[in-house]
Amino acid sequence: MSERRPGERYRGQDFLRTRLAIRFHAVLERYFPERRVFLRSDSDTRFIRLKPESQLLAFMGGSAIVAWAIIATAVLVMDSIGSGNFRDQAKRDQRTYEARLNALESERNKRAEEALAAQNRFNSALEQISVMQTQLLTSETRRHELETGIEVIQSTLRRAMGERDSARVEAETLANMLENNGDTDLRGQSNGSSDDGTLDFMTAALADTARQRDQIEKDAQDALLQADEMAARIQLMEDQNEQIFRQLEEAMSISVEPLDKMFTAAGLNTDTLINSVRQGYSGQGGPLMPLSFSTRGEVASADTLRANRILDQMDKLNLYRIAATRAPFAMPVKNSFRYTSGFGMRWGRMHSGTDFAAPHGTPIYSTADGVVVHAGWQSGYGRLVKIQHEFGIETRYAHMSKIRVKKGQRVSRGDRIGDMGNTGRSTGTHLHYEVRVGGKAVNPMIYIKAANNVF
Questions:
Q1: Across residues 161-181, what is the average pLDDT?
Q2: Given its phi and psi angles, is residue 372 left (phi above 0), alpha (psi -120 to 50 degrees) or beta?
Q3: In the predicted model, what is the mean pLDDT of residues 237-248?
Q4: Whole-number pLDDT of residue 453
Q5: Same domain, residue pair 275 and 294
Q6: What is the per-residue pLDDT across 261-290, written as a single tens digit (0 to 9) for each?
Q7: pLDDT digits over 27-47, tens only?
């Protein structure tokens, strides 16, 4: 077989392409025959030749435009339908959220009323405990006095009984002497005048001794009656003391146990807490010193030990009361408000506090006793107040519109420190409230919820 020359190979390829083009053109001619569009004017007539290829391009362009219009219209319609659903769903969610907020606000108001009632009961219990303590101390003192009186009466009774026995012996001696003198008178009358004088003296002495004996017996009977009366009074006072002890123990149990639970729920060690507070009140003779009864070197009685246990509980209760004012168990906002954001992750970032929303200018209060360590502007927080409390606790109050305290100022729980605002990185008027223990943020609601059943 002879080889083709280059020119022949090129001509073959051109011929193949020409045949394909002719076949493609024939197919287009079948669906898009060539057309002519005539344009006629008053003086001239022209036409435009529309080839099949041009018609195909026009058809594809028009189809693409129509398809794009259909798709765009469908997207817009779907977006409109979806937006409407989203808006309806958002409205429903907003109504649900508002209803939930209203329920929470009602619950908060109810809890606040219960807390106020509990505080009143707590104050009444403290007053009652104080009165009972006074009664207990008075009754204990009176009991000691009665015991001392009984000892004196018993001593007098023993002395009277001894004197009575001595008088009986003396009376018997005198009676014997009288009998002997009588026998002597019968035997003779030689010493008549001297014996008469002796007889008169002995008779008078015997009568006096009899009177003393009768008086001593009467005094002894009176002493016994007084002893019985004092014993009955002591028994009555012991019954009253038992009742007072029982009421005090019940009052201590009712008062101390909720405080134990409150501090434990807040994550505070009660032993460390009490020791820390006690160090600040270690002076002698203060109101926190437990009382004790003198036993004069004797072993303490059961009542004394019981009273000291109650007084120790009262001391613990007083220390708890002081500690409660120095830990942030109060609410920073007392007016009506709603929770807008809690502690935890939010939008992929850690939200280290709790947000309270209320009208602009709502008062903000310190939640515990402490010292202001910052009062000014801080990036992100806006107008910020930091208060350092005991036990390594710090509270922060952010986004305020006005600050009412200064750095270094000492504040008490319930003191107004500023007004609610919208400064810093904030999307609306609210208070951002933080609690930090040892520099680490903790959930403020732990402290607030822990105190719901106490204050």
A1: 68
A2: beta
A3: 72
A4: 57
A5: yes
A6: 777 776 777 677 677 677 665 544 444 444
A7: 777 777 877 777 777 777 777
CATH number of the domain encompassing residue 371:
2.70.70.10
What one-character-per-residue DSSP string does 308-348 give?
HHHHHHHHHHHHHHHHHHHS--S-S--SS-EEEE-SEEETT
pLDDT at 155: 73
Tokens of 177: 């002497």
For residue 72, give Cα distances in angstroms to 82, 86, 333: 15, 20, 52
Percent of the chain with pLDDT over 70: 67
**Residues 366 and 302 placed together within one structural domain of the fold:** no
* Structural domain count, the chain: 3
Paired with 420 in beta bridges are 400
Task: Kindly state whether residues 391 and 251 are assigned to the same domain.
Answer: no
Q: Are strands 370-378 and 382-388 parallel, antiparallel or unpaired?
A: antiparallel
Rounded distance between C-alpha atoms, residue 387 and residue 366, angstroms: 8
Question: Which three-class secondary structure state does DSSP give residue 160?
Answer: helix
- Among residues 366, 455, 371, the alpha carbon closest in space to that of 414 is found at 366
- The DSSP call for residue 421 is B
Q: Which stretch of DSSP H or E encloses residue 403?
A: strand 393-403
CA trace torsion 162, 165, 171, 177 (10° rounding): -100
Instruction: Report the distance separating Cα 252 and Cα 258, nearest Å.
Output: 10
Provide φ and ψ at 436, rounded to 5°.
-120, 135
Q: Which domain holds residue 222?
A: 121-326
Which of 202, 312, 298 lies closest to 249 in space, CA to CA? Answer: 312
Do 186 and 79 share a domain, yes or no? Answer: no
Residues 135 and 181 in one domain: yes
pTM for the whole structure: 0.46
